[in-house]
Amino acid sequence: MTTQTINLYSLDELSEQAKTRAIEYIKTVLDGDFVYDIQEDIENYIKPEFIKSKGFEADNVYFSLAYSQGDGAMFEGRIDDITKFTSNKRAIKVINEYGLYSKIKHMGRYYHEKSYELVIDFPELKATQYRLKEEFNKIEENVRDIYEETCKQIYKQIQSHYEFMTSDESAIEYIKSNEHTFTDKGELYIQF
User: CA 65, CA 136: separation in Å to the nearest integer?
Assistant: First the structure.
C-alpha cells in the first residue's frame, strides 16, 4: 500500500493563477447546475404571476440560452384576461358573453418570442356586431405585441439570473460556503 500526502489549500491561500483556475472550474459546475435547476424549477425564476399580470396563463415555458441564433424564451398557454388587450367595453362584453378560445403553441425548433403559433377564436359575430371585427383584429395584434414583449422580458430575467449564477462572485461564494479545497494548481480536491 502506498500513502500519498497532498497539500490542500483554501481559495484565499492559492496563487492568483491557481485561484483563477479554481474559480473558472467552479463556474462550469455552476453553469451545469443552473441549466438543471432552472429546468427543474422554472417557477422560481419566472413567476406565474408575472405572466398572468400580462394577461396570459402559461402551461410551459421554454428557453434557449446558448448566446447564439434562435436564443430566447417563449411560453405555451392562453389568454387569461382580455382586458389587458383592449379597453373597448363593447368588445369585452361580447367576448364575456359568447366566450373566447385562445391557444399559444410552440412552433419551429427555436425558443424565442417569434417561435409561436397563436390561435384566437372570437365569438360568432352577429350582423349587428360586425363593426367589432376591426376591434377584434386590433385585439389580436395587441395580444401578439404583448406576448412577444413578455417573452423578451422572460428571456432577460433568465439571462440575468444566469449571468449572476455564473459570475466570479457566485463561484467564490459557492467555494467558501462549501469549504472546497484545491491543489496548489487550483484543481478541486474531491475526497472519495
Answer: 35
Q: Is 104 within 8 Å of 85 (Cβ atoms)?
A: no
Rounded Cα–Cα distance for residues 38 and 80 (Å): 25
pTM of the model: 0.81
Assess if residue 141 is contained within a domain: yes
Q: What is the pLDDT of residues 83-124, one digit of tens each?
A: 899 998 988 888 888 888 899 999 999 999 999 999 988 766
- When pLDDT is cut at 50, 70 and 90, the band that residue 164 belongs to is confident
115 is in which domain, residue-wise? 46-163
Domain annotation covers residue 177: no
Q: What are phi and psi of 72, to 5 degrees?
A: 155, -165
For residue 109, give the 3-state DSSP assignment. Answer: coil
Q: Do 42 and 61 touch, CB atoms closer than 8 A?
A: yes
Residue 187 belongs to some domain of the structure: no
Break the chain down into helix, strand, coil percent, rounded to 5: 50, 15, 30
* Mean pLDDT across the chain: 87
Q: For residues 123 and 83, what is the distance between their CA atoms, to the nearest angstrom?
A: 16
- How far, rounded to the nearest angstrom, does the alpha carbon of residue 54 sit from its chain's CA centroid? 15
Q: How many domains does the chain have?
A: 1
Three-class SS of residue 14? Answer: coil
